[in-house]
Amino acid sequence: MRFSQAVTVLSFLLGLGTAAPAVYTSEYTTLGCPKSTTPIATETQQYEALSDFASLLYLQKMPTKAFNNYVATHLINHAADVPGDGAAVAIQTVGPLVAESAFVIEQLFVAQDRGVTYFKATTPMGTVAAIDMFRMSGTCLIEHWVIQNPVLNSTNPHPYF
Hints:
Number of helices: 5
Strand order of the largest sheet: 1-5-4-3-2
Number of strands: 5
Structural class: alpha+beta
Strand content: 25-35%
Helix content: 25-40%
Oligomer: single chain
């Protein structure tokens, strides 16, 4: 371990709040994180990575670039509508949907090696409120969950967003 990495880990363990935990650094390698990511990162660095990923994917509609820059090759994927693990499978499934949909990112946050995006997606099939949650190793997205809810008429004056 390099001295700077040791200081970063020690700072976190002492509660100085300067580093994210290094719990998943072995997964960083085994799951095939891109070279554009780092195995250890602060929450601020993780937030910046997730924010850039979300911008590339949802707003700039560049799923291949988003995944190539931030997602592990062997992404563990829990999304029911994606037929397996891996970044390539996710790109094949999500790419066409991204191309034909409009997105508004409502909220984005990172804490404890988890990143969450809450967004509105207007698709050919209707409008949905969705949450993408990722487990992160440094600035690499290594595991994914999604929850989607169709936007329906509601008696609540401010439903969903």
